[in-house]
Queue: 4 jobs
Job 1
Amino acid sequence: MATINVRQLDDDVVNRLKRRALLNNRSLEGEARHILECAADDGMAAKRAAFLETMDRLSPLTEGRKHTPAEALIREDRDHGHRDTL
């Protein structure tokens, strides 16, 4: 795991973080870690959870059917000259 240092943080910010940490029953470091984790999440965890829920719900609908591997579909598409335009 990595370690970061935050220098020249205003005393008022530190005091507010300490109060927030106390309210959340965390240490100052734990509160800062929680804030950084939430800020870095960018919603991907929620999107991933929603995708997995949808996948679990739809999976039984295709049970017992033959599935073409994605690699084969991509290869077929490329062999026919279709490319991404990005």
Job 2
Amino acid sequence: MKTLLGVGLTLFALAACSSSVPDSGAGVGFNDYSQYEIERAQREAALNGTTPLAAGTLSAPAAVATTELQAVGIGSRIDAVEAAAGRTTGIEASPSNAAPAVIGAGISDEQDFDAVASRETIESDAARLAENAAQYQVVGQTAVPERDGREGPNIVEYALNAPNSKGQEWYSRFKFASQSRYQRNCASYVSADAAQRDFLARGGPERDSRGLDPDGDGFACAWDPAPFKLAAKAAASGN
């Protein structure tokens, strides 16, 4: 009997010390959401110095209209923010969603159709076209200046009249011509055309004082007449 009595007292003591289970449906400190909105609107009105919203005006959260919020001074702050951002409707969804730029601000006068149309007419456009046409000048043809001959032998004419191809011996040369002299002297020219022109100016192709044509084909420093002949053939055929 004493044992049962002790167990009962222990259970009673534990029940007295245990905390109650919270009611998840009791809300977050107010009766319902509509009542919370009314109380919040009244607090906003008190801070802004406007007429508070009467209790019982709102029956549900969906009934909170823009006009009612503006009546207690809530919407005026939103309007001020939108006006400062250059918007007429909508608010920013997030800091990354920047306000759209105002279209038309700072547009050039030349790009403004209304501004141009207000001062320009068909007659003014025609006058401007006539003024531009009067300033147009046609440059007449002039004769090509005569060459003074100081540019050296004409290597194009020489290539077209050459009787042989590159590598085909046509002129007599010293059989023991120095290869090193040939390479050294050819390296002193900026191009094969310049070497051929100087070669002809020094008495070539019959003479080769600098050793530029050791194989005797009449072409100095690997100069080749073939491209000139192909170009002339293509021009003659119309291609």
Job 3
Amino acid sequence: MAYKKRHDGRKPGETRKIIAKAGVIPNADGSGYFKIGDTEAYAAVYGPRELHPRSQQDPKQGKLRCAYNMMPFSGQGDRVRPGPSRRSKEISMVMEKALLPVVDLEAFPNAVVDVFVELPQTDAGSRCAAISAASIALADAGLRMRDVVAAVAVGVVDGMKVVDLDYEEEAWKEGDVADIPLAMVPSTGEISLVQMDGRVKKDEFVQAIEQAKPAFDAIADAQRAAIKQRYADAAAKVE
């Protein structure tokens, strides 16, 4: 049966419900929470602080390190094994690459900024939620940034171009599925992450990215609103 209508009633370019918050972890230097549908991510930032071992220090700029972790029973599929895995290491690396274009690390030579992301519940789009949460946390930590980084997956499910695939769409068995996680700097349109699971035609790929632009804007608006609310709440406490 062809996939002509999304199973949850969403329009092709519509994301699941988005919730974004800043300052959710009191003991971190900065923190963020991002939920899209049933996928939720908590991010905590520690630093800038001196990088050890010193052999890894860079006198010209600081270093960004990311650590991604899905809790054992967070996913829709098989139980996730506790501890680092090949997948978690790969996603940690792509998170760093996706966030680096907006973070000014030249102000912190020989230092490191650590970002830890935990996902207690997932229903597809986990790396995108992790990046979006981490971006909020970095801003909450007071680091100088060019912009936030918004992330969402686009794809083609049995010929239908969609934004923000959920687990049922990723696992669609009746036809071919292409899942394309993307991260973008909304103010410039710069794409800082592109990955792909599956195959897609070039014109479908371009159309899918174009279709996702309103979603990037919506995610960025939610991220910025969360950061503004965080500082508004802090100001209210001082008064």
Job 4
Amino acid sequence: MEIKKNIMVGQSGGPTAVINSSLAGVYKTACDMGIPKIYGMCFGVQGLIDEKYVDLSEYIKSMLDIEILKRTPSSFLGSCRYKLPDNIQKGNEIYEKIFSLLKKLNVGYFIYIGGNDSMDTIKKLSEYACLTESDIKFIGVPKTIDNDLAHTDHTPGFGSAAKYIAATMKEIIRDGLVYDQQSVTIVEIMGRNAGWLAGSAALSEGEDCEGADFIFLPEVPFDIDDVISKINNLQKRKKSIVIALSEGVKTPEGIYLAELEKTLGFEDSFGHKILTGAARYLAGVISKRLNCKTRAIELNTLQRCSSHISSRVDITEAFQCGGAGVQAALEGKSGVMITINRISDEPYQSNTSVFDISDIANIEKKVPISMIDTKNYTVTKEFTDYVRPLIQAEITPIMVDGLPRHITLTASADRPMY
């Protein structure tokens, strides 16, 4: 059967090392299925409202371009953190503008690659489609290094970020052994209110590395006096201590450590504050109370853009999720997100399915207590067994003149941005 409707695809929220692999999966599958036009919204739904979009066929012209796109970090189409109005009623100006543009472009399938806030967008658009009896299908494709989306075993982007964190922790631990003196190094790791990323530091432990000494997660209240006491006791046995600290850790009173550093400032449209400064705060307290050398390291955006060390499992699953999004839309599904189901660990196998977006949007999946060793401030074997399959294998970057080659969205006369 001939497909006469077009696709609109976008990316939203913080990027990952493999978010473009999902975009490549959407594009390749849509081409294979005979979709006439594959449009990309520039800077997410906010850019779409401003009528900024491209014809992806003008930018991706070969299988080599697809392979480079899979290996390109950041969001090829650009991103946003834009919250659609909660007032979902007929005649709403924002929704009418979006649906009018999609109708003009003969779009029948709308695919949004993103995390929690992006799934909120899919939920609202699908509800408005039902309200107005639109036949456009709205599909969410998961993406987030935080791994905090509900009803999916894990999210594309998490495995590569976990791989980067574990590898970097090994290197930091080695570096800490250079000098014969007491020192405490605190490595601040992303994740907001979920400790999946910080917990991944436990993978650094192995035959050649003793691993992180403490791992502090947001799921466990941060008792500063108990932490200082445990560090003090450990210093009697070893000189270099390395700590993995989630950016979202809170005191028993519910205060972010970053707030104590007084560095919280910018807040996005979803009410999320930029969490940074927890490591600096803890380093200052340890230095003052234990009179030793401290160092605070913020891995920051490196966790989500280091595509040179991305996981092959992660890139492959991201691509598959993009393709599954197209398949779900063509099957008539809407208001759903693609999910990853783990079939086995040895050998690792997974497949995809769909889940109602209403049970996913705005819900944070946190690390279960069974995966946390609360007494010793670390994670359990259940946690490392869960994460380890997701960091396996590599896809070598396509190197040009000694550096990875990336594909970029650059408008020109022959490649316009509408």
